[in-house]
């Protein structure tokens, strides 16, 4: 294997996050460090409550400043995320970093057609006119294997199945040609067969578009399916990191072994 000499696209360095206000702070992330290299998929895994989503929200600059305190550093392409203004952060989220969550319904506008949401995003972020935005939206629908794209364009989110909504969200996330995708349990709410389809879609897109992906899941089966490297978290601590192959072959921590024993 060729050794990667490039520097990471994302570096999480001794991240500590506490929630609270004034003098009462409760730390929930206790010094977590990991890197994501360009074009690589890293799985962030751990049971519910281990701090995966808080880590993602910290990277995305989505924690409410008054209620959350971030220490340590998060560096995306040389930029220190905790130092960015809300405006710069918004531009980053609509540009080089995209995200998808467990329930796309909360991220989609219920009163706008799926097609128009993506087209609008293309108009804002890539300056496309109405015609070009529509054409590009249909191309993106095709890209995420939505058949019958013309009809789906005029569907509202609530008319679609969970799996279809997640495809729409993925199409939306691709609209800004991100360098990195952060996916927080994007398949957890879906039926097993649909899960598998969405996972293979994410994998295919990652390979074709060369994006880096931080894939958050509580499911080691999913980890095996998608990731090059794995970061295991438990109760706000980093348990271990390694290549996914090594973690499956020879997990160092008892906790990782217990997660693995749950994989059928
Ligand atoms: P995971 O995504 O791994 O299930 P989370 O990152 O959501 O875990 O949560 C990690 C810990 O942080 C949990 O103990 C949770 O209760 C706590 N937490 C998350 N969000 C907040 C918040 N806004 N205020 C206070 N505590 C929070
Ligand atoms: Mg979570």
UniProtKB/TrEMBL annotation:
Cellular compartment(s): Cell inner membrane
Domain (ABC transporter) ranges: 10-260
Subunit structure comment from the entry: The complex is composed of two ATP-binding proteins (GsiA), two transmembrane proteins (GsiC and GsiD) and a solute-binding protein (GsiB).
Similarity comment: family membership: Belongs to the ABC transporter superfamily. Glutathione importer (TC 3.A.1.5.11) family.
Protein task: Part of the ABC transporter complex GsiABCD involved in glutathione import. Responsible for energy coupling to the transport system.
Full protein name: Glutathione import ATP-binding protein GsiA
Residues of the full protein shown: 1 to 264 of 609
């Amino acid at each position: 294997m060729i050794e990667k000499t490039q520097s990471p696209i994302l570096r999480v360095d001794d991240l500590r996050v506490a929630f609270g206000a004034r003098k009462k702070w409760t730390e929930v992330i206790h010094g977590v460090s990991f890197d994501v290299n360009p074009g690589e998929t890293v799985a962030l895994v751990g049971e519910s409550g281990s701090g995966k989503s808080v880590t993602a929200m910290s990277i995305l600059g989505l924690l409410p400043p008054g209620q959350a305190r971030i220490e340590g550093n998060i560096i995306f392409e040389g930029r220190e995320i905790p130092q960015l203004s809300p405006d710069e952060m918004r531009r980053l989220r609509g540009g080089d970093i995209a995200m998808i969550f467990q329930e796309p319904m909360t991220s989609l506008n219920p009163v706008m057609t799926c097609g128009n949401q993506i087209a609008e995003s293309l108009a804002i972020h890539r300056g496309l006119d109405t015609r070009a935005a529509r054409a590009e939206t249909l191309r993106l629908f095709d890209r995420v294997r939505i058949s019958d794209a013309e009809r789906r364009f005029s569907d509202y989110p609530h008319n679609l199945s969970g799996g279809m909504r997640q495809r729409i969200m993925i199409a939306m996330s691709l609209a800004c040609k991100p360098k990195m995708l952060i996916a927080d349990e994007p398949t957890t709410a879906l039926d097993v067969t649909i899960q598998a389809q969405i996972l293979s879609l994410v994998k295919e897109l990652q390979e074709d578009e060369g994006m880096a992906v931080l894939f958050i899941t509580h499911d080691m089966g999913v980890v095996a399916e998608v990731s090059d490297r794995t970061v295991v978290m438990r109760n706000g601590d980093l348990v271990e990191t390694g290549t996914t192959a090594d973690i499956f072959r020879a997990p160092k921590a008892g906790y990782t072994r217990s997660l693995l024993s749950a994989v059928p």
